[in-house]
Design a protein that fits this description.
Number of helices: 12
Strand order of the largest sheet: 1-3-2
Largest sheet: 3 strands, mixed
Radius of gyration: 18 Å
Oligomer: single chain
Number of domains: 1
Bound molecules: zinc ion
Strand content: 5-15%
Helix content: 55-70%
Length: 308
């Protein structure tokens, strides 16, 4: 998909949305267009990295389909026609992120725009899908095909963790960071880290509403723990004095998020507060499966790409 096609997908979504629920969507179109500019830039880097490493092509789609016909709000797979890796993010997901921020004029105590949360939520989502593409997919339509619910959930957790780690790519690339800075008014590492944790909180809140009570996914608090653990370890590994910075950004993101009036107020506590029953399942079932499945799956994925 070219950058022009990406933007026409955004327009196509809002034509359908306007027909279904007439309203004023100019603010949403503007913020979502900035987020897809960032995604389009990231996918170009990802495409060349994966292509260099594996010889595999990546197809990237912004899906314009409108609710309720929409089946997947984001996905990763291998095309049965071309053999290419296909990653898709729907405009509907970006709209859900934006919708939660509808009443938020500014980020409390901060100079950056709420668009930073939307953009980083979108980056967390695409980084999750890219993680599936690189580490989990072995065959066309292989994601979830051979896995039990517990195994599938373990791979989802791994994609959250690796996705959180991968979000740092926006800061590490001058081209991505320029787009992000123009859209959000963020120009320091410290503010970037904080906005990245806030974006994860927003995404997990939205996913909580979309995937509640699904045995293939953990609840929003466990998912945020994984996304944030991934980002924490990336910051600590790649920046001098990173651990202290990561901790402060993580702590501040929680504090600030409690002062952000999301449209659906009950979603935020679901992300920030521990769900003991879900945590127990993660500790006793999911995490032990991750212990062996993650490495096995990543090795299989690498092997299948080499032989493709
Ligand atoms: Zn997934």
């Amino acid at each position: 998909m070219t950058n022009e096609e990406v933007h026409s997908a955004v327009r196509a979504y809002f034509v359908q949305k306007q027909a279904k629920e007439p309203g004023e969507y100019d603010g949403a179109v503007d913020a979502i267009s900035k987020a897809v500019d960032l995604l389009a830039s990231i996918k170009d880097t990802f495409r060349s990295t994966v292509n260099d490493a594996t010889g595999k092509e990546i197809e990237f789609y912004i899906n314009p389909q409108c609710e309720p016909a929409l089946k997947w709000i984001a996905s990763a797979g291998v095309s049965t026609k071309t053999g290419n890796i296909v990653i898709s993010i729907s405009v509907a997901l970006l709209y859900l992120l934006h919708h939660q921020l509808r009443g938020v004029q500014k980020v409390p105590q901060r100079r950056y725009s709420p668009t930073a949360l939307l953009a980083m939520g979108a980056v967390a989502a695409i980084a999750h899908e890219m993680s599936h593409a690189v580490y989990h997919i072995t065959l066309p339509t292989s994601v979830g095909k051979d896995e039990s619910d517990d195994q599938f959930r373990a791979l989802e957790c791994d994609a959250d963790r690796r996705g959180g780690f991968g979000m740092l790519a926006v800061l590490r690339s001058p081209a991505h960071f320029r787009i992000f800075r123009q859209a959000t008014n963020i120009c320091t590492k410290r503010a970037f880290f904080e906005a990245a944790f806030l974006g994860q909180i927003l995404l997990c809140a939205v996913l909580a509403a979309a995937y509640s009570q699904n045995p293939r996914y953990h609840g929003p608090n466990v998912r945020w723990q994984l996304f944030s653990a991934g980002l924490m370890s990336a910051i600590s590994r790649l920046y001098f004095a990173g651990q202290v910075r990561a901790f402060w950004a993580f702590w501040n993101a929680q504090r600030i998020s409690r002062r952000i009036p999301l449209t659906d107020r009950k979603l935020l506590p679901a992300v920030l507060e521990i769900d003991l029953a879900d945590q127990e399942i993660f500790d006793t079932v999911t995490a032990p499966i991750m212990g062996y499945l993650v490495e096995t799956k990543a090795a299989e994925a690498a092997l299948s790409r080499q032989s493709a």
